[in-house]
Amino acid sequence: MGNFSAALVWLGFFAAVFLGWYFYLKARNKERMALIERDKDVSEIYAKREIKFVFPWLKLGIILTGFSLGWISALFAIQLLLKSLVKYNEEVWVLGIIFLFTSVSVLVAYFVDKPKK
Length: 117
Hints:
The chain is mostly helical. It has helices at 2-37, 43-46, 57-81, 90-113. The chain has 2 domains: 2-46, no CATH class; 57-116, no CATH class. 76% of the residues lie in helices and 0% in strands. The protein starts with a helix and ends with a helix.
């Protein structure tokens, strides 16, 4: 029974992918035919669009720097400052400090990259 259900899942997956592709092509063809019937300019559809994507290296660098500073600060806080406390959960402090520094670095990256737009 297990093999049959696995085969059925794979068959359903491939059928969904194929039907999605088929209906996408069908709708695109119908739209092009409607434009041709109305004597509209079809060259826009066939024109190659220039995709200009620039990877946000500055944002990524700022965020990773904030993450690593948070990690170092958390280890520093655990080793030096929190050893005097009797009851504390070390993992919670580490995650809290890391998330704090990372979120601050996301905000800094947002404001640094904002004037470019």
